[in-house]
Amino acid sequence: MTRQERGRPLVGRSVPRREDRRLVSGRGRFVDDIALPGMLHAQFVRSTVAHGEIMSMDLSAVRRVPGVVAAFAADDLAIADITAQLGRPRSQFVPTAMPVLARDKVRYVGEPLAIVVGLDAYAAEDGLEAAHVEYAPLPPVLGEETALADDAVLVHDEAARNTLVDVSLFATDGIDDIFDAAHRVVEVDVTTGRQNALPLETRGAVAHWDDREEQLLLQTCTQVPHQVRTVASRCLRLDERAVRVVVPDMGGGFGQKCVVGREEIAAAAAALRLGRPVKWIEDRKDALSASFLAREQHYRARAAFDTDGRILALDADVVCDMGAYSCYPFTAGIEPLMASAEMPGVYKVPAYRVRGRAITTNKAPTAPYRGVSRPQYVMVVERLFERAARELGLDPVEIRRRNVITDFPYTGVNDITYDPGSYLESLNLCERVVRDEGWYDTRTAAAAEGRHIGIGYACFSERTGYGSSAFAQRKMQVVPGFDISEVRMDTSGAVTVTTGTMSHGQSHETTMAQIVADALGLDIARVRLHQGDTDRVTYGWGTFASRSITVGGSAVRLAAERLGDKLRAIAAALWDTEPEQVELAGGQVRRRGGDGAHDVLTHQEIADVAYLRADLLPKDIEPGLTATATFDVFNDGTFSNATHGVVVELHRGTGQVEILRYVCVEDCGVAIHPQVVEGQCRGGIAQGIAGALYEEVTYDAVGEPSATSFMDYKVPTAQEIPEVSIHHLETPCAFTATGAKGAGEGGTIGAPAAVLNAVNDALRPTGTELDHTPITPQTVHRALNPEPAP
Q: Is the dihedral of CA 313, 471, 751, 195 positive or negative?
């Protein structure tokens, strides 16, 4: 770092990332790297049927397999169930207990029935084959049609019509009259395929009892360590103090790891029972078929428009297939409640009605995968605008211009107040980039040659910085929201900062250090972050919903500012001046206006006084240099926004969708580290493209998952993901301490809608429109090559 750079703020700069050297050189430490003396290895006997009663389970042969140390079923371990709750009446929400190990009934292929512990992972795997389980099969419930049938088989006896959530949050008076009188009403019927978040590192845990601390140490890859501690202590009937959860380096999560899994609790129970460390690492087959899934949703929606293309009303029925159980702590309401509350998005919708339902089926349960329901409802609303533009003879971008929110703050029909954003500006800039690069001319020329090139857009907002009040509106019994940070300086002048967020690839070690270093005028190399340790971090809700910088970073900023105030107060006392006359900058503590050596102190010199020469401190200043702060968002949250523009070509011979150009114009407020923001955008867009064109978890007629390897679950590679052009706008947020809004999910939210719109634009000459993702080559091929009428 040059002398000129040393004086500039770190926030807003793409400084070298502090994690990179360790991770890129192979010195990262992940759960599977942990090796402890006497450690055993666990795997799980899993259900081979989608739905059935357990008639008998014999593990005696398992225990005789060479290398197997023990095998435990539910009754052997007596672990309490995991139950997620909403504070809603039974007519709106039905709670269902998720046993850590299934007892009387199985509800999906892959559900854990017993844990087998061996001297090594191979012995544990061998033991699985010796388990004998007899089932009385029941008809599987595999989708909306069978789940909601009048004579439906019930996945849970207490959930009539297999419905866990049924909520109508909004219904504007007179909305039916608005539709009746509208100039044009357009409808869409949109479905999205089930997906796997697919983090590079599968789930895993290492558990052992520490006799000296009288504490269970559970090392696991989770986005929510404090929630895992709470559930583990309750399931295992331990004081929460007696459970310590530590997260080492983590290779991705994307929401799949922001809920509490059953296997980590079972591994901990086995370690307590055996008095030895137990490791469980999920293999890829189980990760694809039996881990938390997401995305399978169905929207029936319609919108009313006037003659000028302005929207008059929006009406939607949302059904989300949540699989066999509610996830903890979010419950099965996470997807339908998100969609219902936020569907109007960036548009001025005067009237709104929505019904949101979560159904339970005999599939692996779902977790809030990156973006939750926003990629789906954005796709729905964007498809409505596309269809309205075609029927009204308007340009697809122009109809959006006439409807996006431009005056802020704006309170929508959904009772959400949106903070200032650049909705229109991002839309205009994105279109200008696509047009200036000549893609409209390319589309016209291609059509004359019989080629199919299409251009599609998606304009959307991303609600970030959910605070306690926002989550409380969902009636969650466990209400996430706030974060706590402690910033502590030692006698050398170096700083340790804690955060309740949990990085799984977002570069928190760098971005949080940037915030602290700026607040204290320190070299970033002197700031160290601690995260993911429930004994070192007071409390936190982890990382999800783009909350790390908005909420966690704000707590860090406030704590650092409080420590800075104490540093200035001590320096002022030593100089016999006022704290306002002291500044922290350039790695020094300086008296304003002074230019002599006696007008400068080092942080270490201040720390020496705070710790080693307390006799020099004024009576109103306590010894030590520690500051703590909490932060919560008490309004409706913050809103990042973006517009994505996509150019695709459809190949008649193969049905292949080739993305020729991808443009993203995003506004996440103040970008702490622009390179990290761009990485988040590109990674999110890759996942969004995956959902639009490639990835889908499917099941056969008896509920057996048919995509249990990468031969069947199609994941795009670098060959399929295009170069992404990213353009930044910046509307600082007034509700966070850093001015940041959050950037973790925007790429995933916008990509499916933009890609789908581009494909439909390319299909316009055929008269075919698609409203399902993923868009397969077979579907495109049929649209481009229709069979002749008989």
A: negative
Which has the closest alpha carbon to 249: 507, 510, 552, 512?
507
**What pLDDT is stored for residue 789 in this prediction?**
65
Going by C-beta distance under 8 Å and a sequence separation of 6 or more, which residues neighbour residue 707?
288, 289, 696, 697, 698, 713
Q: Model confidence over 723-736: pLDDT tens digits?
A: 999 999 999 999 99
Peptide bond into 579 cis (omega under 30): no
User: How many CB atoms neighbour CB 417 within 10 A?
Assistant: 13
| pLDDT on residue 1 | 46
For residue 704, with 0-12 CB atoms within 10 Å meaning exposed, 13-18 middle and 19 or more buried, which class applies? middle
Q: What pLDDT score was predicted for residue 7?
A: 63
Q: What is the largest CA-CA distance in the chain?
A: 99
Torsion, CA 633, CA 634, CA 635, CA 637, rounded to 10: 20
Contact 570, 520 (CB under 8 A): no
Q: What local confidence, expressed as pLDDT, does residue 470 receive?
A: 87
Amino acid at 736: T
Place of tokens 């070690």: 509
Surface-to-core class of residue 164, CB atoms within 10 Å of its CB (0-12 exposed, 13-18 middle, 19+ buried): buried
Burial of 289 (0-12, 13-18, 19+ CB in 10 A): buried
User: Per-residue pLDDT tens for 562-578?
Assistant: 999 999 999 999 999 99
Q: How far apart are CA 588 and CA 583, in angstroms?
A: 8
Residue 6 confidence (pLDDT): 57
How big is the chain by its Cα radius of gyration, in Å? 28
In sign, the C-alpha dihedral spanning 670, 674, 677, 678 is positive
- Direct distance between the N- and C-terminal alpha carbons of the chain, in angstroms, rounded to an integer: 74
CB atoms within 10 A of CB 378: 28
Q: Given the structure tokens 């069979």, which residue do they identify?
A: 787
Positions of E strands within 211-340: 215-220, 243-246, 278-281, 293-294, 297-305, 311-321
Count other C-beta atoms under 10 Å from residue 339's C-beta.
Answer: 24
The Cα 584–Cα 316 span in angstroms is: 54
Distance in angstroms (rounded) separating the CA atoms of residues 712 and 717: 14
pTM for the predicted model, two decimal places: 0.96
3-class DSSP state of 709: coil
Place of tokens 């997807």: 335
Q: At how many degrees (to 10) do helices 554-575 and 508-520 cross? A: 30
Q: Name the β-bridge partners of 318.
A: 299, 356
Report the distance separating Cα 218 and Cα 174, nearest Å. 55
Sign of CA dihedral 474, 475, 478, 479: positive
Q: Is the peptide bond before 329 cis (omega within 30 degrees of 0)?
A: yes
Q: How far is Cα 124 from Cα 283, in angstroms, rounded to an integer?
A: 13
| C-alpha 93 chain-centroid distance | 23
Element (DSSP H or E) covering residue 410: strand 410-411
For the CA atoms of 345, 346, 349, 350, the dihedral, rounded to the nearest 10 degrees, stands at 110
Sign of CA dihedral 672, 746, 458, 334: negative
**3-state DSSP call for residue 411?**
strand
pLDDT at 4: 40
Residue 596 confidence (pLDDT): 84
Residues of the chain with pLDDT under 50: 1-4
Q: Where do we find the tokens 């050596």?
A: 597
Tokens of 344: 């109007």
